[in-house]
Amino acid sequence: MSGKNDMHQNTDQNAGDGGNINSYRRQFMASVVGISGVAAVATIAPGIILQQAQAKPADETVTNKVRWGLLIDINKLNDGGDACVEACKKEHGWGDEKLSNKEQDAQWIRKVKVTEKMTGHVTNLPVMCQHCDTAPCVDVCPTGASMKRADGIVLVNKHICIGCRYCMMACPYKARSFVHETLIDQRPHSPRGKGVVEACNMCVHRVDAGQKPACVEAAPEAILFGDLNDKESDISKALKQFGGTQIRADLGLNTGVRYWGI
Amino acid sequence: MFSKFLSVTSSLLLLVFLVGVSGCGNESPQIESKITKALKKFDTEEQNTAHKAEMRKYHMDHLKHKRDLTMYGGIRTAEDSLKGCIDCHVPAPEGDKVVRHTDPEHFCTTCHAYASVQIDCFQCHADHPDKPESATATANNASMDKNLGIVADDSTSKTSTEVTAQ
Questions:
Q1: B148 touches A at CB < 8 Å
Q2: Domain of residue B101, residue span
Q3: CB A154 within 8 A of CB B71
């Protein structure tokens, strides 16, 4: 049944290619699916259909049909997330601010150590922007610079950010930081500069190119990246079967980043 | 009294204007020769002329339009991409030699310094391409350039980093 639905989606995509939907073509395609639909369900593996659904043409606007998310299994992160932090630093070029002090340093992603008081059990987990569905940082921004893209990625539009840092106050995850000094030699795909707020943007430039975020590539065995709206994606299946913890779930922010093992 | 003030002011304005014009007259042919040559070449001379004419007047509009498409829509095509402009017009770092927007030979700075217009882009955006070894998705860019009718020209790329003596 699910396979048949997929076939119908493919038909619609094909018909929309030329801009105008040709009614003859639509009828023809419908008849083709009608005849060969049963056979196609048996031959097309679900994995292949999944791959097709994730690629976005470069000149097409992002839509809310997808919602990108991460699932982090911290039991499989042997280093507690150090590799992820390093990969993020390298990808976006942060972490070597010369003039900033410890309180001012950029932190797109950081390792947090949690100790349970009674047992003394220590847990390390990487914490970054949780890409909330109802993001407090977006609510409070006076200029609209703090924004959520249609595909669920929360990021700062630095062109209109005035650096008031209200979003840093609002974020319950301490995910955002402010650049205190003049920067040079930024990475071409990740603009950063003095006077504006910055945070994890789920490597939006890589996602738009059909790649995975840098931290996911650094710890592929521990982090799943995928479309939370797609019931057939690996991340959705894993979350459906085993659930996933949100940090500060009591706030009801419906985060896009979920954890296992905390 | 007021008419005297007017005449003095207008003559002063005229003087400033004349000085300005004479400055322009001396400077502008030199500016042309100071501008760093682009890395890639268009297929035809017409395309090149059209690109120059359009970009000289409207590059800021192109960039501002594309910036919103990219920011909100995630559209990262080669057309009107600031990264694309920089990749072609500013030489990649060679060893210790890095051309930054604070240097007079930087493509954007040459004219902006002359016109006395501040560029804010490079407070955040990279003002030169990544070092060759750390650059990624080069193959991707090459395929996109093809669609725009731009081809890499090896004979010019060797001399593209040279700047005419000032």
A1: no
A2: 41-155
A3: no
Pairing of strands A197-198, A177-178: antiparallel
- Closest residue of chain B to A209, computed from CA coordinates: B76
Map out the domains of chain A as residue ranges.
2-44, 68-260
Alpha carbon distance, N-terminus to C-terminus of chain A: 36
- What are the angstrom distances between the C-alpha of B138 and each of B129, B144, B145? 11, 10, 11
Q: Are B74 and A61 in contact (CB < 8 Å)?
A: yes
- Count of domains in chain B? 1
- A257, containing H or E segment: strand A257-260
Pairwise CA distance, residues A244 & A254, whole Å: 11
- For residue A56, what pLDDT is reported? 81
CB-CB neighbors (< 8 A) of A158 in chain B: 124
Residue among A30, A95, A56, A97 nearest A227 (CA) = A56
Residue numbers in A near B124 (CB within 8 A) = 158, 183, 186, 191-193, 196
Q: Which of A58, A182, A186 sits opposite B126 (nearest CB)?
A: A186
Angle, helices B2-34/B107-115, rounded to nearest 10 degrees: 160
β-bridge pairing A68-73 and A257-260: parallel
Burial of A75 by CB count in 10 Å (0-12 exposed, 13-18 middle, 19+ buried)?
exposed
Q: So what's the pLDDT on residue B9?
A: 55
Per-residue model confidence as pLDDT tens digits over A127-171: 999 999 999 999 999 999 999 999 999 999 999 999 999 999 999
CA distance B128 to B122: 9
* In-domain check, residue B20: no
Which segments of A89-218 are extended strands (E)? 109-115, 122-128, 146-148, 154-156, 177-178, 197-198
Which residues on chain B are in Cβ contact (under 8 Å) with A59? 75, 77
ipTM (interface predicted TM):
0.76
Fold exhibited by the domain A68-260: Alpha-Beta Plaits (3.30.70)
Q: Is residue B13 part of a domain?
A: no
